[in-house]
Amino acid sequence: MSYVLIIGAKSDIAQAIAKKYAENNYDLYLAARQVNELNIFAKDLAIRSKQTVQCVELDILDTASHHTFYHALPEKPEGVITAVGYLGSQDLAQTDFKETHKIIDTNYTGVVSLLNIIAEDFEQRHSGFIVGISSVAGDRGRKSNYIYGSAKAALSAYLSGLRNRLYSSGVQVLTVKPGFVATKMTAGMALSPRLTAQPEAVANAIYKAQQKKNNVLYTKGLWKWIMLIIKHIPEGLFKKLSI
Fold this sequence. Notes:
- The protein is an alpha/beta fold.
- It has one domain (about 5-240): 3-Layer(aba) Sandwich (Rossmann fold), CATH 3.40.50.720.
- Helix content is about 45%, strand content about 15%.
- The strands form 2 sheets. It has a 7-stranded parallel β-sheet with strand order 3-2-1-4-5-6-9, with helices on both faces. A two-stranded parallel sheet has the order 7-8.
- It starts with a strand and ends in a 5-residue tail after the last helix.
- The mean pLDDT is about 95.
């Protein structure tokens, strides 16, 4: 059996990823807070795919528990996919550091805590893959979401360094940078249909990129070119834009 550990498994993207890997004969650990809420999804997926699907409790913010969590898994995974994300409120975070702290710790600190432990195991085993879902929001700070964006920028930099560290050990690290995705987190936002991906399309793109051992994936692919343009807008002009 080859297990894939999916962190943040209650998200729409994570569940689409779980279905994709189960379809391709991977057993799954679905990790999240209040993971019992995933029991019906996990049982249905196991029946449909005929794969083993186990739900495991994980609080990404409780970093002291991460070592015990990982080493208590019955069988170590072949790969790990982090789908943790908390957009939070930019306006609230500007005046309430508790919100800032939650955004940073959910999107970055907690993920790094757990991936450090997993990376050490994979490095010793000389095998495995790590997929980290970051965001195009991390490519350049924007006034509308720069606290969330800064956490995702930090995650992208971390994954880049981890990729270089683990390369000689044969461990793949894939950084995923989604643009707009039609999920519960973006519900109610006025998103461009042309630029908005469905979770299933994101999952398919992630699976293909991981299997090809790619380094970085933008999804939809058009976001790669959009962000290239945005990153090259002169700072003087960028400050005047309402984004």
